[in-house]
Design brief:
The complex is a heterodimer. Chain A is built from 7 helices and 2 strands. Chain A is mainly alpha-helical. Chain A has a two-stranded parallel ribbon. The radius of gyration of chain A is 20 Å and the shape is elongated. By secondary structure, chain B is mainly alpha-helical. Helix content of chain B is about 60%, strand content about 0%. Chain B contains 4 helices and no strands. Chain B is elongated and about 110 Å long. The chains are: A mainly alpha, B mainly alpha. The interface between A and B is medium-sized, with 31 and 35 residues.
Chain lengths: ~240, ~190
């Protein structure tokens, strides 16, 4: 046992749990999203096919986004931004396929995305990737092979994104305005991701003012808000058609 | 107000053929048949008196056309599933090994994006086929094949990552100490 170190000490694990935790985080998120959709009275067929398509999209975009951005096959690995784009693509595609409670279905996926991200961040915290800046204060952690302490950025992100999920769920349940809820959740998640990147060590290694993570987060945010505006217009047009007849 | 209600109730009882009226101490009476007011058939009424019917737009409900569409979608989906990722990943591999010499990073990035888009499009088309024609056997088989391949891929990725981490951990400080022979592209 290590007693002379004042901060929490994280050993490198013997069994690598990283990928297992990431996949189970995605599965937990899908179960939560399906529960929300079930409570919102979607058809069972819609729920099953949407869950399937979104899972495929998350896995494919999460794994290929690293290669796409860096242009290097060796940089294959699961990226959070790719997973986010996967959620957006999967939810949007199944929205236009099934045409069943469109806004509610989209919102339930956007709300659940921060939960998936938050749970998968615990894997980063345990395995010691994407470490935080040097810091010596409350809650500081140290990884094996380093004799200084770091800010627990991954644990903070996990807590923050779980909180964003709870906020989104509360707004969804009490306001009953799905598109507004998804916009708020999206903006909160992008703001959290953007600001937490300043606490990561990798932020200060980048050549530019904004790091790669921040640029990807902004791109994700703009794509998401563009999709929400498109869905809003589409639904208004549908409503106009029904009322006009 | 109250008396009116009372009268109405009485009338209803008298007109309703299903309510048996029992006369205490008298002979049982046959139920009175309902009196239907004489009404002209709709086509004999003048135009302005005819009720307006909302006729929904005719929807093409041709099961044969639907099943043909579903089969077409399945074929396109299968092509996208098999051929497109193979072509694009071959291009990416060739470009990564320095065949094209120029824009290698961009070619790798774009082809990986295209191959993942083709894979997703294959899934989307399969689901559209399933939704269009529920009984299409081709779509059903495709769906289970895709799900099986997906489960295999997820398990493979997990095992591969675990194996890579174990291999890298066995190296320690220098690559000469490795227990496992690393893939050639891992050492550059």
């Amino acid at each position: 046992m290590i007693n002379n170190i004042p901060y929490e000490y994280i050993r490198s694990l013997h069994f690598p749990v990283y990928s297992v935790i990431v996949v189970s985080a995605i599965l937990v998120g899908i179960v939560v999203a399906c529960t929300i959709m079930y409570r919102l009275d979607l058809r069972r067929k819609t729920i099953i096919y949407t869950a399937l398509l979104t899972f495929v999209c998350i896995m494919v975009f999460g794994l290929s986004m690293g290669i796409t951005v860096s242009g290097d096959i060796r940089s294959i690995g699961f990226t959070g931004a790719g997973g986010g784009i996967g959620v957006l693509v999967g939810a949007t595609a199944s929205l236009f396929i099934h045409r069943d409670h469109e806004a509610e279905m989209f919102a339930s996926w956007i709300i659940t995305a921060p939960l998936m991200y938050g749970i998968s961040k615990t894997a980063c915290h345990v395995s010691g990737c994407c470490v935080g800046i040097k810091y010596d204060g409350f809650g500081a952690i140290s990884y094996e092979g380093e004799n200084f302490s770091r800010f627990p950025v991954q644990a903070t992100e996990a807590a923050l994104f779980t909180l964003i999920f709870l906020i989104g769920l509360a707004i969804m349940l009490f306001s009953n305005k799905p598109l507004m809820t998804s916009t708020i959740t999206l903006i909160l998640s992008i703001a959290a991701k953007f600001s937490m990147d300043y606490l990561r060590a990798s932020h200060y290694e980048s050549k530019y003012a904004l790091s790669e993570n921040q640029i990807l987060a902004l791109v994700c945010g703009f794509i998401g808000i563009g999709i929400i505006i498109l869905i809003d217009r589409f639904l208004k047009k549908q409503r106009g058609k029904i009322n006009g007849q | 107000m109250d008396s009116n209600q009372f009268n109405n109730e009485n009338q209803n009882q008298a007109q309703n053929p299903y309510v048996q009226t029992v006369n205490v101490g008298g002979e049982p009476q046959a139920p009175v048949p309902p009196q239907v007011p004489p009404q002209q058939p709709v086509y004999q009424q003048p135009m302005y008196q005819q009720p307006m019917y909302y006729q929904p737009a005719p929807v093409a409900e041709d099961p044969a056309a639907k099943s043909r569409l579903a089969k077409k979608l399945c074929v396109i989906s299968l092509i996208l599933y098999g051929a497109a990722p193979a072509v694009f990943s071959t291009i990416a591999w060739m470009s990564d090994s320095g065949l094209f010499n120029y824009f290698d990073d961009a070619i790798v990035g774009v082809s990986s994006l295209l191959s993942s888009a083709a894979y997703i499009a294959a899934w989307v088309l399969m689901i559209i086929a399933r939704v269009t024609d529920k009984k299409c056997v081709f779509a059903k088989v495709l769906m289970w094949v895709y799900i099986g391949m997906l489960i295999l891929a997820v398990v493979t990725v997990i095992i591969l990552i675990i194996a890579c981490v174990e291999a890298m951990r066995s190296c320690g400080d220098s690559l000469s100490n490795c227990d496992i022979l690393l893939l050639p592209w891992a050492i550059r």
